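Go through this:
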Amino acid sequence: MPLVINTTENGQVRIEGEMNIYNAGELKQGLMNAIRDSNGVSLDLSGVSEMDSAGLQVVLLAWREAGRRTVPFRLIGMSGAVESVLSLFDLKELSEEYRENP
C-alpha cells in the first residue's frame, strides 16, 4: 500500500499506508513541511497499516523538531500497527490518548 499524507490548514496530518524504510524520505518531508507551515501538528496515525523502526524514527524526529521550533505536536490516533511499535519501544506516552486514558 502506498503512503498517503493528507495535511489540513489547521495542522492535522493524517498518514495512511506503510510507514517503513521504503517511505521514510517521503514521510519525513511531509512531516517537516507540516511543522514548518503550521502553529501546531496533530498527527493521526489511525490509517497506518505497517510501521517499522524507520517510521518510528521519523515520528521521533518530527516530535523533536516541533519541540525545537516550539510547535505543539501530538498524536491523535493510532492503528494497531503503530500501537504495537510504540509498545515495543516503551513509547506509548507519546500518544495523547494514552496519557488521557492510562
